[in-house]
C-alpha cells in the first residue's frame, strides 16, 4: 500500500507539537488514556483540520457534547483546549480569554433540527437558533456578552430549545440553504451572526433579529415581547389579540325599592335626556305587567329601600397615591419593562421582594398620570388598566412577590380597559 508523503515545514512541526498535547486532551475523567500517534493517518488528518480552524476566537462548539455542568474542572480545561486547537493551554491569560469567548455550552442543545422540532412540540418550547461565522468577531461577542448572562440563560431554558451552529458546518449549511438564501448567494454581506425563532409545529421562521442585541437586558426584553404576542398553545391564534374588557352594563333599577316620587323623577329624567337614540335603554318603571298607578292593599307596606355598600374591586382597592421610589441596583433588585398601548416603553427597577401590587401602585400613581398629562387636554389619569405578563393577568397574583411571579427581568403589558 502506498504510504502518504510526509508532512513538511511548519505544518509538520505544528502537528508534532500538538499531537503530544492532544493525548492529554483525550484523557478521560476515569484516568484512561486513548493514545493517538502521529502515524495514525485518519486521526492526524482530522486533528490538523481542527487545529487549523480552531482558536480562541473560533472555538469548535461540537467539543461540548456533554452538559458543561457535569464536567470536572480538569475535563473542562481539556475540552477547552481541544475546542481552541490548543490555544487555551498556552498560558493562564489565554485560558481566561478562551473561557470568556467559549460557546454557551450550558444551554446549547445537541439535537438536530428535526429532532429539536419534535422536542419543541412535546415541551411546547420555541426553537431559538444562532448561526455563527468563525471569522466574524460579532459572533464571539454574542458568546461573551449575551449568551452567558444569567438572565438570558434563564429565559432561554424556560422557553426555548437553543441551537448554535457554525455556518460552514453540516447543520449550519442546511439551515442557511433553507432559511437564508441571500447569505447562500453571497448577496447579504451582513448575514452573520444570525438569530431567529422557529415555530416547532410548522418550521416557520417567526422572528429574525435585524440587529444584534447590545446588552442582555435588551435581548431579554425583546424575547419577552415576542412571548407576549405569540403562543404555542393550540387554542391561541397568533399573534395573540387580547380584547379590551367590556365596560360594565348599567345596574338594573330596583323599582320596588323606590318611592313613587323617585319613580316619577326617573321617568322625567329619561324623557328629557338630550340626544337619545333608538339604541338607548328603555326602563319600564312599572316593574313588569302591572299598572303604573298601583294602589296599595290595606295592611300592605312597601318595603323600605335597602342601603347596600358598593363592594370595591381588587383594582379599586389598590392605592393611587403610593408613589414609587426606585431602589438601588444590586442582587436584591431587578429591572422590569412596562409596555404601554401607544408603543412606548418604561424600564423601572423594583426589589425582588416587592409584591405585584406594588407594580400596580407604580403604574397607577406615577406612570399613567405622567403619560396622560402629556396628552392634549390632560387625558384621563384615573383610567382602569390591566397588567399582563406572559399571558398571565397580574391582578390575580397581587400578593406574590416579583420573584415568585416570575417577573425578574420581565416585560409587562399595560392594557387600558377604557378609552
Report what the structure shows.
With 419 residues, this protein is α+β, with helices and mostly antiparallel strands. It has three domains: 92 residues, no CATH class; 117 residues, Glutaredoxin; 103 residues, Roll (Ubiquitin-like (UB roll)), CATH 3.10.20.90. Helix content is 34%, strand content 12%. It is built from 13 helices and nine strands. The strands form two sheets. Strands 6-5-9-7-8 form a five-stranded mixed β-sheet. Strands 2-1-3-4 form a four-stranded mixed β-sheet. Strand 7 and strand 8 form a beta hairpin. Helix 1 crosses helix 2. About 17% of the residues have low confidence.
Give a brief rundown of this model.
The chain has 419 residues and is α+β, with helices and mostly antiparallel strands. The protein is 34% helix and 12% strand.
Mean pLDDT: 76
Strand order of the largest sheet: 6-5-9-7-8
Order of helices and strands: HHHHHEHHEHHEEHHHEEHEEE
What is the structural class?
alpha+beta
Secondary structure elements and their pairing?
Blueprint: H1 9-25, H2 41-53, H3 73-83, H4 92-100, H5 113-123, E1 126-132, H6 137-146, H7 150-159, E2 160-166, H8 170-179, H9 181-185, E3 194-198, E4 205-208, H10 216-229, H11 260-271, H12 314-317, E5 333-340, E6 345-351, H13 356-373, E7 385-389, E8 392-393, E9 411-416
Parallel strand pairs: 1-2, 5-9
Antiparallel strand pairs: 1-3, 3-4, 5-6, 7-8, 7-9
Amino acid at each position: 500500500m502506498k504510504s502518504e508523503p510526509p508532512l513538511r515545514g511548519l505544518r509538520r512541526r505544528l502537528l508534532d507539537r500538538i499531537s503530544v498535547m492532544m493525548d492529554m486532551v483525550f484523557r478521560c475523567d476515569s484516568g484512561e488514556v486513548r493514545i493517538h500517534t502521529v502515524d495514525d493517518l485518519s486521526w492526524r488528518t482530522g486533528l490538523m483540520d481542527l487545529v487549523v480552524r480552531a482558536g480562541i476566537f473560533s472555538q469548535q462548539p461540537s467539543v461540548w457534547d456533554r452538559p458543561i455542568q457535569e464536567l470536572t474542572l480538569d475535563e473542562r480545561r481539556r475540552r477547552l483546549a481541544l475546542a481552541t486547537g490548543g490555544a487555551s493551554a498556552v498560558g493562564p491569560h489565554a485560558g481566561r480569554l478562551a473561557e470568556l469567548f467559549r460557546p454557551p455550552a450550558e444551554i446549547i442543545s445537541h439535537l438536530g433540527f428535526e429532532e429539536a422540532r419534535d422536542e419543541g412540540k412535546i415541551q411546547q418550547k420555541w426553537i431559538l437558533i444562532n448561526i455563527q461565522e468563525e471569522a466574524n468577531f460579532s459572533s464571539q461577542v454574542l458568546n461573551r456578552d449575551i449568551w452567558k448572562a444569567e438572565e438570558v440563560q434563564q429565559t432561554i431554558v424556560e422557553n426555548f430549545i437553543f441551537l448554535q451552529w457554525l455556518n460552514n458546518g453540516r447543520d449550519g449549511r442546511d439551515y442557511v440553504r433553507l432559511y437564508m438564501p441571500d447569505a447562500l448567494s453571497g448577496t447579504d454581506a451582513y448575514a452573520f451572526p444570525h438569530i431567529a425563532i422557529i415555530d416547532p409545529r410548522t418550521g416557520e421562521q417567526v422572528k429574525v433579529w435585524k440587529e444584534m442585541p447590545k446588552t442582555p437586558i435588551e435581548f431579554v426584553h425583546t424575547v419577552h415581547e415576542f412571548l407576549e404576542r405569540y403562543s404555542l398553545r393550540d387554542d391561541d391564534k397568533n399573534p395573540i389579540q387580547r380584547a379590551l374588557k367590556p365596560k360594565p352594563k348599567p345596574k338594573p333599577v330596583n323599582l320596588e325599592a323606590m318611592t313613587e316620587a323617585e319613580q316619577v323623577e326617573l321617568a322625567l329624567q329619561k324623557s328629557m335626556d338630550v340626544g337619545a337614540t333608538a339604541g338607548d335603554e328603555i326602563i319600564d318603571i312599572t316593574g313588569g305587567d302591572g299598572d303604573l298607578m298601583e294602589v296599595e292593599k290595606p295592611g300592605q307596606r312597601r318595603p323600605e329601600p335597602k342601603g347596600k355598600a358598593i363592594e370595591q374591586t381588587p383594582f379599586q382597592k389598590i392605592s393611587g397615591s403610593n408613589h414609587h421610589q426606585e431602589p438601588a441596583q444590586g442582587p436584591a433588585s431587578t429591572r422590569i419593562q412596562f409596555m404601554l398601548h401607544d408603543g412606548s416603553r418604561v424600564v423601572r427597577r423594583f426589589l425582588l421582594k416587592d409584591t405585584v401590587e406594588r407594580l400596580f401602585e407604580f403604574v397607577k400613581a406615577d406612570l399613567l398620570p405622567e403619560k396622560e398629562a402629556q396628552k392634549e387636554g390632560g387625558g384621563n389619569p384615573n383610567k382602569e388598566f390591566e397588567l399582563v405578563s406572559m399571558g398571565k393577568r397580574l391582578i390575580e397574583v397581587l400578593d406574590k412577590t416579583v420573584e415568585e411571579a416570575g417577573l425578574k427581568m420581565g416585560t409587562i403589558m399595560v392594557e387600558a380597559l377604557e378609552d
